[in-house]
Amino acid sequence: MILFGFLVPGLAAQMSQQSPPSPERGAKQSSRSSQTQPQVELKRFSLLSGISVDVSPDWVEREQMPLPPSPRLAPFAPQVTFLEFMALENPRMHSALRIATTTNPFLGGDEVALDVQMHGAAGSGNGLADYLFYFFFSPPRDCLDGGSEAYKKAKRQAESPDQTAVSPDLSIRTDCKHPPTLAGFYSGQVSPGVLFQVTNGVGRAGGIYPEFYLTRR
């Protein structure tokens, strides 16, 4: 399970592991649960801006990481500037939570336009899969470095004066070895590697996406 939080200053978010009871059962369960289950003390994580999130004690913060996107992907990523970024994980639930403050790329749009954008084709550069790839679960750094170097070498060879047949298109695929971590698992699910390519003289780097199915809850 992947959870995302995009927060604005002054807003506190709270999460629970369980869904709230239905109205019919809520009244009956309320008194019973208060007697049989001790209240779980929540754990608070805070960004420097003062934004905080309260979660169960099973959640832990990953080591500090640079703000996304990776420099190898930044020229090709959607135009979003991250101001703060925190990565939380719950190994027991096999879950990951990402909390960030950003310049709001969706400001001025409505829910219909956002829904259309998020359901855009993977690889379009602005759909949900692309945001996952560029910002939240990118390939490992050594894989991006290796793919970028292989792409630059192939591009130099294609542009060499000795090259008799010049092709405007170039595609270099690099499959990654993902680390045995939660972040590595989800990164591999989003994309097994990275694809550097030039099409009609325009360069880009993106994911190698499997077929995604988006559901509404």
Description:
- With 217 residues, the chain is α+β, with helices and mostly antiparallel strands.
- It has one domain.
- The chain has helices spanning 23-36, 111-118, 128-136, 141-158, 182-190; strands at 2-6, 13-14, 43-46, 52-55, 60-61, 82-90, 95-102, 170-175, 193-199, 202-207.
- A 4-stranded mixed sheet has the order 1-7-6-5, with helices on one face.
- A hairpin with a 5-residue loop joins strand 3 (43-46) and strand 4 (52-55).
- Residues 5-21 have low confidence and may be disordered.
Q: Which runs of at least 5 residues are low in confidence (pLDDT < 50)?
A: 5-21
Give the biggest sheet: 4 strands, mixed
Roughly what fraction of the amino acids lie in strands? Answer: 15-25%
Q: Write out the strand line-up for the largest beta sheet, numbering strands in chain order.
A: 1-7-6-5
> What's the mean pLDDT score?
80
Q: Could you estimate the helical fraction of the residues in percent?
A: 25-40%
Tell me the number of structural domains. 1
* Structural class by secondary-structure content: alpha+beta
Summarize it.
This protein has helices at residues 23-36, 111-118, 128-136, 141-158, 182-190, and strands spanning 2-6, 13-14, 43-46, 52-55, 60-61, 82-90, 95-102, 170-175, 193-199, 202-207.
Please write out the topology.
Elements (H helix, E strand, L loop, with lengths): L1 E5 L6 E2 L8 H14 L6 E4 L5 E4 L4 E2 L20 E9 L4 E8 L8 H8 L9 H9 L4 H18 L11 E6 L6 H9 L2 E7 L2 E6 L10
Parallel strand pairs: 1-7, 2-4
Antiparallel strand pairs: 3-4, 5-6, 6-7, 8-9, 9-10
